Amino acid sequence: MTAPFEAPQRKRSKFLPTLFRTTAFKLTAVYLVIFALFAAFVLGYVAWNAQRLLSDQIRSIIDAEIQGLAEQARQGGIRRLVNIVERRSRAPGASLYLVTTPVGERVAGNVEAIPPGTLDKTGESEIEYARTSETIDTPSHAIVRVFVLPAGFRLLVGRDVEERDRLGAVIRRAIGWSFALIFVLGCFASWFVARRVLRRIDGMTETAHGIMEGDLKGRLAIAGTGDELDRLALNLNAMLDRIGELMAGMQQVTDNIAHDLKTPLTRLRNRAEEALRTAKSPDALRAALDGAIEEADNLIRVFNALLMIARLEAGRVSDTMADLDLSEIVSGVAELYEPLAEEAGLALVGDVAPGLHIVGNRELIGQALANLIDNALKYGRPQDGGEAAVTVAARRVGEEIELSVADRGAGIPEADRGRVLDRFVRLDDSRSQPGFGLGLSMVAGVVRLHGGTLRLEDNAPGLRAVIALPAARPKPVETLPPPGSESSTAAPNPAGVPSL
Amino acid sequence: MRLLIVEDDAEAAAYLTKAFREVGHVADHAPDGLEGYAMAEGGGYDVLVIDRMLPRLDGLSLIRSLREQKDETPALILSALAQVDDRVKGLRAGGDDYLPKPYAFSELLARVEVLARRRGAPAAEPTTYRVGELLLDRLAHRVTREGQEIVLQPREFRLLEYLMKHAGQVVTRTMLLENVWDYHFDPQTNVIDVHVSRLRSKIDKGFEHPMIHTIRGAGYMVRDGTL
């Protein structure tokens, strides 16, 4: 078999680009970005909050000091303030202090340089500054506050924010590092996951290629993990099985046509040829033509039967399914065959429970039943003067309706019971009877289409063919008493379950 | 009887027109659905024989269009699709009968003649059928021949009723299976023959002339044997 399309070329050397194109890799990459953004947000939020907290702390210290110093200035005048500022300025780890005259001349404090104009703004600001002990080249950051004392003197109190800035730097570095780590780990994880998935997908692709190239027995490997890939593989395998069955069926049909239709066609041709060659009278020619037409009719019937079986197996007749009174059909078909049975010297006994309903196609069920009865009449003659009867029965068994046709003939050996359901299979003993060996295949097809089962059982002696079909849900209407019956005797049946 | 055959296969159409003309009918031919529709609309046909698969307008649409125009000319559908649901679809579209291909001409002829006759028949069916001395009373469910009552089973009664309704016409085995039993499947054997021969033994045995005749290669016909 040639593949109907070009199989894509696979190149091992392009493994890495393939890896980047895998869904697993892309998914991991997306998760990675989302996670990184989330981490950045969290860390950023923490950093911002920590910095704000520290700034607030610094501000409250500054406020407290300004309040204290202003109180001192109010009580003891500028001189006292200057003394206190001088003392505090010398303490280790001191805050920043500056006291100036109204024109801006430095009176006391430990601040050497501040940006011009700082003292004009009362209230809080963030500035660069240098302490008296330091060179001006390395300015530091501070939060300062300016307070206007009586007589126009100005008091500046501030605190260095180096500590706060250091914390910010630490967090920024942490963000950087964790980004790098997330990226490396993420790349590694996605590569690992993608490679694992890719390896299994590659296995599947390879199997699929094998199947496309004609190895129809190939099946996808199941890892046994029960994950989505396993489920996919299981389903694909089930699909392949079904395709295999259909292919086998088609193969069988082709073989059947070759073997079993060529024979009658050859016979037909031979007959026509012989008539042309030997027939002298118009009557002889007419007889030959009649024979040819009969032969052709038989061929048509075989074709119709084959098409019907094929169609049943494809399961395409279900749109004509309706609620059926099976009892009526069984009785009707039995009645149709009753004279034929009588002619064959057999009694056709009906044992049909009333009011059995299924959902199905009337013609197909009728055909299946007709095939079974026809078989029973053909092959059901008792061997040694036994009971010459064919029993057609229908009854409800639980949720199913069992339909059986039983004869007292030779039966079918157990080993052959599966085989006879195949097309064109005729057991050696039956070759003397007319037929094509399609009847039971058709029955099997009909039963399968109706969601039922067909069993061939030993009737000791004889054959009992049993069709089990799912019973239809009874409608409430059907529990009404039939016209003419006394309604008082009909038991109330609110559940709608027919009593048998 | 005037027939219109709508069939795209020229050979099949030629065969049909020739065969219908040989038995004394007037047969016209349309090679596609649109032309078939135009000719059928022109009217004057007793029966339309329409292939289901036609170029330009398929057979089912053709019949549906005619029915929408209140044209009730009986139509028989010929089809290569012979499955149960196809037949149902054909009848639902407004067809009066459905015959799967390949068919025997005798079968087609018998069905077409029944359809043509039905067209002229009064709407209500008569309560009794009479063929020569054979009398069937549908209301009393009684059959008499030359005044003697013949006791029939219900199915035998319906079989005779159908044959007598179409007295003088050929009725094929499939037509009997479809109309008396309402089955549309292949019964595998000659069941109908056995039923007819049973009926025949009751109707014809002991009388001089047979009423139920076997038409070779076609089916059965009830007619007065004395004629």
TrEMBL record, chain A:
Q: Which UniProt keywords apply?
A: Kinase, Membrane, Phosphoprotein, Transferase, Transmembrane, Transmembrane helix, Two-component regulatory system
Q: What SUPFAM superfamilies does the entry give?
A: ATPase domain of HSP90 chaperone/DNA topoisomerase II/histidine kinase, HAMP domain-like, Homodimeric domain of signal transducing histidine kinase
Compartments (UniProt record):
Membrane
Which positions carry the signal peptide feature in this UniProt record?
Answer: none
Question: Which spans are transmembrane here?
Answer: 29-48, 174-194
| Catalytic activity of the protein | ATP + protein L-histidine = ADP + protein N-phospho-L-histidine
Q: What is its EC number?
A: 2.7.13.3
Question: Boundaries of each Histidine kinase domain copy?
Answer: 256-473
GO MF term set: kinase activity
Which InterPro entries would you find in this protein's record? Answer: HAMP_dom (IPR003660), HATPase_C_sf (IPR036890), HATPase_dom (IPR003594), His_kinase_dom (IPR005467), HisK_dim/P_dom (IPR003661), HisK_dim/P_sf (IPR036097), Sig_transdc_His_kin-like_C (IPR004358), TCS_sensor_his_kinase (IPR050428)
Chain residue ranges for the region called Disordered:
473-500
The residue ranges of the HAMP domain are: 195-248
Class of enzymatic activity (EC top level): transferase
Protein name from the UniProt record: histidine kinase
Originating organism? Bosea minatitlanensis
TrEMBL record, chain B:
Residues of the signal peptide: none
A Pfam family that the UniProt record links to this protein: Response_reg
Report the DNA-binding ranges.
Answer: 126-224
* CDD domains noted in UniProt: REC_OmpR_CusR-like, trans_reg_C
Q: Which UniProt keywords apply?
A: DNA-binding, Phosphoprotein
Domain OmpR/PhoB-type positions: 126-224
Q: 4-aspartylphosphate modification sites? A: 51
Which residue ranges does the record assign to the Response regulatory domain?
2-116
Report what the protein is called.
Winged helix-turn-helix domain-containing protein
